[in-house]
């Protein structure tokens, strides 16, 4: 396990020598200590990224050369997939097969953006038709500069890949701050990039507290672009800081995503997708479909099956064979989710199952997966992101009511609908005010497709070709005669 900062191609100790504990959420043991960066370290990292961008020529390399580095990083991740996945489990608590999948997906993300970096070479400058024949004009795409990336703890390596891969493909250089709770695999990413021969300063990783290291990144005048995934309140702070010197910003924030199930849906399949949509990664997923709306004709039967299956989920250490639900990431997160369940109860909701620690497990931040019914529409449990394995289920009578309930949220990240009637499913999909819509499923995520939210769920889109746009400026060059 690494513990130092990765700045300018070197492993360095933080200037003030501080460290943060790494706690295994499955055992509550301190398993390691990592460096706690301060503004001084962030300044060195930003200056290194600046040099790599302004002087050392990273943005001047052809897309094909940059693609070579990205592919080498993808190969490096794959070569150590099981080891990195194990670290992710120790740090975050998720079941090993999920971590293994995340690591493979992170490698795939680097490969995907390698392809787009190559395409940047092939895209001839775009000629623009002008109404005055004395002028000719073209548009060219150029990297924005130094990107500051700040990521959360729910998908530690994958979120790093979603930021770093498109930024490097575009020709930007990066200073990345992982979440204090889960920095181990981001440090491994630095090690892999180093082994891949990535030039010094192109990727810098500073670990430490958001309020110190993160704040120093968003305040730094030499950072051109901020890319953030995490909570709404921190997203607002980032926009406010960016407003001062007009940094480019992309934000991927939370959600309270609806899942509408019509009366013609197969109940077993619906239960499977509902559970996948809320219990995967212990429900610590920004796009989790945490509000389930079920047509009244099948509500009773579906709820019964959902509770039955939810009670069967195997809870345990993510490294144990067969575990489907691990611990929450931290004591703080556990307390927050338990408080949200308690708040729901007080507001009048019924806990149909879960809501307590699993019996027989006395260490680790474990919580039984929870199904809530009778949740008042004006309660926090219905309106606010809980970010844990907690789903609110409610019935509806008409399509119009379902759509209105689904859209009645300040968030708009994702939404799902299940029906055998294609026309109805398409109609509802079109009516959802959300950036990601799933029909007859929930959560499948592809590197090729745009990812991001409407309303307070964020600004901009990650992944696919849209993800590359986050790191590019457009320049017009117009010539007279
Ligand atoms: P946040 O506080 O938003 O943390 C996300 C990242 O921002 C972390 O790297 C964090 O650093 C950093 N950060 C915190 N304060 C900062 C500041 N002033 N300037 C710059 N960076 C800063 O999320 P959290 O505390 O981990 O979780 C709180 C709630 O946010 C959760 O309960 C959940 O509802 C939501 N959340 C949403 C998402 C997604 S994907 N939408 C992901 C995680 C959490 P440190 O963690 O190192 O302090």
UniProtKB/TrEMBL annotation:
<feature type="active site">
    <location>
        <position position="252"/>
    </location>
</feature>
<keyword id="KW-0614">Plasmid</keyword>
<dbReference type="InterPro" id="IPR016161">
    <property type="entry name" value="Ald_DH/histidinol_DH"/>
</dbReference>
<comment type="similarity">
    <text>Belongs to the aldehyde dehydrogenase family.</text>
</comment>
<dbReference type="InterPro" id="IPR015590">
    <property type="entry name" value="Aldehyde_DH_dom"/>
</dbReference>
<keyword id="KW-0560">Oxidoreductase</keyword>
<comment type="pathway">
    <text>Amine and polyamine biosynthesis; betaine biosynthesis via choline pathway; betaine from betaine aldehyde: step 1/1.</text>
</comment>
<keyword id="KW-0520">NAD</keyword>
<dbReference type="InterPro" id="IPR016163">
    <property type="entry name" value="Ald_DH_C"/>
</dbReference>
<dbReference type="InterPro" id="IPR016160">
    <property type="entry name" value="Ald_DH_CS_CYS"/>
</dbReference>
<dbReference type="InterPro" id="IPR016162">
    <property type="entry name" value="Ald_DH_N"/>
</dbReference>
<dbReference type="InterPro" id="IPR029510">
    <property type="entry name" value="Ald_DH_CS_GLU"/>
</dbReference>
<protein>
    <submittedName>
        <fullName>Aldehyde dehydrogenase family protein</fullName>
    </submittedName>
</protein>
<feature type="domain" description="Aldehyde dehydrogenase">
    <location>
        <begin position="11"/>
        <end position="477"/>
    </location>
</feature>
<dbReference type="Pfam" id="PF00171">
    <property type="entry name" value="Aldedh"/>
</dbReference>
